[in-house]
Amino acid sequence: MKMVHFGKTGMTVSATGFGAIPIQRISFNESTRILRKAYDAGITFYDTARGYTDSEERIGLALGEVRDKIVICTKTHARGYDSVMKDVETSLTNLKTGYIDVYQFHCPDYVPRPGDENRAYNAMVELKKAGKIRHIGISNHRLVLANEAIDSGLYESLQFPLSYVSADEDFQLVERCEKAGMGFIAMKAMAGGLITNAKAAFAYLRQYGSVIPIWGIQKECELDEFIMYENNPPPLDDELMASIKRDREELTGSFCRACGYCLPCPANIPIPNAARLSFLMGRFPVEPYMTDDWAAKMERIKDCQQCGHCKAHCPYKLDTPEMLKAQYGKYIEFRQAHGK
Question: Burial letters for 81-103: b for 16+ Cβ neighbours within 10 Å, e otherwise?
Fold first, then answer.
């Protein structure tokens, strides 16, 4: 397993990270087995969050006995002193540990700083002095805030979406973090599931030696695939670049990354999937999306209240209502073409 330095933190971690969002969806026995297999294969970097239901508990259950041999990153949605202090205690209990390696603000809509009225950053500083957290990080989907966090000099790591369909400006963050001595955690390395060529995704990001992709793993076969690439790194050859080019032509620009910040929707529209349904149907078996249940979900788009919540909260500045309308039209045409 390739190991890399995580910024100036002094930590050396596996170049392949484990993203622990998907393990919420499987049994505790299965998640324990997969997490232990990941550790046995040499993966030492695990990313989770208080907001990921019982993901922290699953990591604590599976890896508590090897705590001193792994790096755990978790996050808090808290934006105030007291709530940060409360959240960290819950995370420590869930993770069965006395400290968190990297504690991150989870996608705030501003960059927390010392002296802010809510004193959230001050809480982080006190927790670090007390030894309950070792490094302060921030995750975000907004480029302007990511750059602001780097410029602030207040953070030791940045977590940001990065894949081969990301914009050039996103990749510039990698160089900026290197110069600032910050660790870089790449989330959504598969573009929220729209990239289906894991080999190409792995090979492309492996060019960036300081980047730690956190691959979202739910199935043992997915873990096995990334372990295989780690043990035998695929070259970024003409075949993979051709695949990357095709995806870039289709996905670069206005497409939903399924970050979920548009939710909740007052009309109960499943926005993250509805807004990119044509992409999903072009990459996966269409049968699951041809059901009456999915047809009913897409019909909710006609009940859009034009409240503006989804558009205002999209970190990619997408016109979500218009995107939903377009996806609804494509879906109806697709169903009609298949006799539905």
Answer: beebbebbeebbebbbbebbbbb
Each residue of 228-246: pLDDT tens digit?
Answer: 999 999 999 999 999 999 9
121 lies in some domain: yes
What's the pLDDT at 308? 94
Look at residue 75 and give its three-state secondary structure.
strand
Query: Do the domain assignments include residue 66?
Result: yes
- DSSP of 159-217: EEE--TTS-HHHHHHHHHHHHHT-EEEEE-TTGGGT---HHHHHHHHTTSTTEEEEEE-
Does residue 240 share a domain with residue 287?
A: no
pLDDT of residue 279: 84
The rounded Cα 33 to chain-centroid distance in angstroms is 22
pLDDT at position 253: 66
Backbone φ/ψ region at 72: left (φ over 0), alpha (ψ -120 to 50), beta: beta
Average pLDDT over residues 46-70: 97
186 and 79 in one domain? yes
Residue 174 sits in a domain of what CATH number? 3.20.20.100
